[in-house]
Design brief:
Length: about 350
């Protein structure tokens, strides 16, 4: 470890639009146990070099500096974070870091495969909450969508999460036209049965092949219309910087969320930064520039120098993702190497 502890920055990481960044998403690996068609090719991709991946020491140090800059929550993602050999240790170290308003909150987004064996260790290490991705309840459709016959393992993961102390428990589904848009109601009922909150995500242009087609995306309005055929929905106020717009179902307590990044962007209240598994800082999911924290770390940079990289990233953040801009260019990096 080099450099001394930096003084806390009460102002926090504020960008040119006044957005205060409190949430750091950390991709632990670009590898995954599934091959979702909207993410990567069946054969996978050339994985990031092992020696380029951040170590637990490096991740802990970056989160400590970020906490000094006002970051309050960390979400661990991938690829698939359960594949990362250091997952439990990273959760333990991050959960022990004091943030501006108490211990850093630690969440994780996973595809749920192998979750039953990890949950006791994750709970003990200090994980607070879980999001589990499930796009379909149909085994054949699951096999087509993910190129793996693992629905039964995902369901076992969700069941193990239901029995755990990790709350709130959220289930995420990417809705695609003619693929799983006929399961919207079924997925909500499944989530309610598992004491979880279902969230529907609009399909975004983040696939490795750059084959995204707006026509395949099912927009917010259609998702809500499908839900309203079965449920009474009451919008819930104050989403703050949260991506999901929440609705109470049939008078509650069950809720459902819609993450309408494309048709109803929420960039105006974005509070997120992203750290890739190979130590690149991204100020937006759709950023095309990255700042290299790994080289700085391994080059002996002080905490102040690391802090300044966080500040530089935030100060260069655009107003939004720009998907509707004529000049929009999809990021080079695929979703598997950015993280949710
Ligand atoms: S697209 Fe970028 S700016 Fe918009 S909410 Fe997502 S991360 Fe934030």
């Amino acid at each position: 470890m080099t450099g001394s502890q930096t003084a806390a920055n009460p102002a926090g990481l504020v960008d040119g639009f006044g957005r205060v960044h409190r949430d750091l998403r950390i991709s632990l690996t670009d590898k995954c146990s599934l091959r979702c068609t909207y993410c990567m090719p069946e054969a996978g991709v050339p994985w990031l070099a092992k020696q380029s991946l951040l170590t637990p020491d490096e991740i802990e140090r970056l989160v400590r500096v970020a906490a000094g800059e006002g970051v309050e929550t960390v979400r661990l993602t991938g690829g698939e974070p359960l594949i990362s050999p250091n997952l439990i240790e990273i959760v333990r170290r991050v959960a022990a870091i004091e943030g501006p308003s108490g211990p850093i909150g630690v969440a994780m987004t996973t595809n749920g495969i192998r979750l039953p064996e990890f949950i006791p260790g994750l709970e003990e290490a200090g994980l607070n909450r879980l999001n589990i991705s499930i796009d379909t309840l149909d085994p054949d459709r699951f096999r087509e969508l993910t190129r793996r016959d693992r629905l039964i393992d995902v369901l076992a993961g969700i069941e193990a999460a239901r029995r755990s102390t990790l709350r709130p428990l959220k289930l995420n589904a990417v809705v695609m036209r003619g693929v799983n848009d006929d399961e919207i109601v079924d997925l909500v009922e499944f989530a309610i049965e598992h004491d979880a909150e279902m969230r529907f995500i609009e399909h975004m242009p983040l696939d490795i092949g750059h084959t995204w087609d707006r026509g395949e995306m099912v927009p917010r309005e259609e998702i809500l219309a499908a839900l309203r055929k079965r449920f009474r929905l009451e919008p819930l106020p104050d989403r703050g910087g949260a991506p999901a717009e929440l609705f109470e179902i049939d008078g509650g307590p069950a809720k459902v969320g819609v993450i309408a990044s494309v048709s109803a962007p929420f960039c105006g209240s974005c509070d997120r930064l992203r750290l890739t598994a190979d130590g690149q800082l991204r100020n937006c999911l759709f950023a095309r520039e990255e700042l290299d924290l790994r080289t700085a770390l391994r080059g002996g940079a002080s905490d102040e120098a690391i802090r300044d990289i966080f500040r530089a990233s935030v100060s260069s953040k655009r107003a939004g993702h720009g998907i509707d801009d004529p000049g929009f260019v999809q990021p080079e990096r695929g979703m598997n190497a950015i993280g949710g």
